[in-house]
Design brief:
About 9% of the residues have low confidence. The protein is built from 11 helices and 7 strands. It is mainly α and 311 residues long. The longest helix has 40 residues. The strands form 3 sheets. The protein has a 3-stranded mixed β-sheet, with no helix packed on it. The protein has a two-stranded antiparallel sheet with strand order 4-5. 63% of the residues lie in helices and 6% in strands. It has a single domain, classed as Rhomboid-like fold, CATH 1.20.1540. One of its GO terms (cellular component) is membrane.
């Protein structure tokens, strides 16, 4: 499969969907709001000590950025990754994914903060405002891993990497950075839980419209695939236990509702169908990028023509 360049070319800065633009305005608006009204952060961000009774911050925290760096990364990531995922998933599923992943991420962050307080008795875990869109962004990377795992991405024609490793490398860099920063608690749990909850949703809960079945049972999207080969023998027992604890009933439910009927797997439940879904996703991505390149080429030709006529 051909590599796609992330950087360079006017087509890179076109094709943003209306939905992504609207969500980007929400992120920028949330940042502006807490700049003009700093007190609003205690009501919109996740403050574990105030989550009860202010439970709505489990929802709003995912859309409030507290720094310029956060709002820039959130907006850019949403626009550029969203224009690849939304046409493949559909607008409704794209919004559903963001809402569910953001909510589950901050539920996990809240639970972790409470647990850390009881372990360490440090009140900072209770009163530090936590928020940001980076949980959903890490989930987008998992979505790219699922749809086009073998797509080779090129960053400014310098660094080439397969899409299936982008999520893992992002987490590795975040964990490494946390040893040299004082505010790692404000982003690291969100990135980790955003990655894991998005995988849980895509693996077991996302309904496929073409088959009306849930999840992606293919081995290529198993939890082990986030880790390099030499670590998989160590991770396999842990992943198996977590799979049975968290999603064991999902497998039974799938068999009961149609993954297997009369001993024959239905469409969408076997690795071949999963591979076909990935091929469709990759084909949709290729078609979209080709359309953007064509539009950019036409725009360049029109510009040259106008310049010639004016001369």
């Amino acid at each position: 499969m051909s590599s796609q360049t992330l950087g360079g070319g006017s087509s890179l800065f076109s094709g943003f969907t209306r939905l992504c633009k609207g969500l980007a305005i929400v992120l920028v608006g949330g940042y502006a709001l807490i700049q003009f009204f700093p007190g609003a952060v205690t009501y919109l961000a996740l403050v574990p000590a105030r989550t009860i009774p202010f439970a709505w911050n489990l929802i709003t925290a995912g859309y409030v950025e507290q720094s310029v760096f956060g709002v820039v990364i959130g907006t850019v990531g949403l626009l550029f990754i969203g224009k690849l995922l939304e046409p493949i998933w559909g607008s409704r599923e794209f919004v559903k994914f963001i809402i569910i992943v953001n909510f589950l991420t901050y539920v996990c962050v809240f639970t972790t903060a409470i647990a850390l307080y009881y372990i360490t008795r440090q009140e900072s875990y209770l009163y530090t405002p936590l928020s940001g869109f980076h949980g959903a962004l890490s989930g987008f990377l998992v979505g790219i891993k699922q749809i086009v795992p073998d797509q080779e991405l090129s960053l400014f024609s310098v660094l080439k990497i397969k899409a299936k490793w982008v999520s893992s490398i992002m987490l590795l860099l975040a964990i490494a950075t946390s040893f040299f920063t004082d505010d790692s608690a404000s982003y690291l749990p969100t990135l980790i839980f955003g990655t894991y909850t998005s995988w849980i949703y895509l693996r077991y809960l996302q309904r496929k419209p073409e088959t009306n079945l849930k999840g992606d049972p293919s081995q290529e999207f198993a939890f082990l695939t986030f880790f390099p080969e030499f670590l998989r023998p160590v991770i396999d027992p842990i992943a198996s236990v977590l799979d049975r604890m968290l999603c064991g009933r999902s497998e039974t439910s799938n068999e009961a509702t149609g993954y297997v009927l009369g001993g024959d797997p239905l469409p969408g439940s076997d690795p071949i169908e999963a591979s076909r879904r990935r091929e469709r996703g990759a084909r949709a991505l290729e078609e979209r990028l080709a359309a953007e390149r064509l539009a950019a080429a036409r725009g360049t030709e029109d510009s040259h023509r106008d310049a010639t006529e004016s001369v």
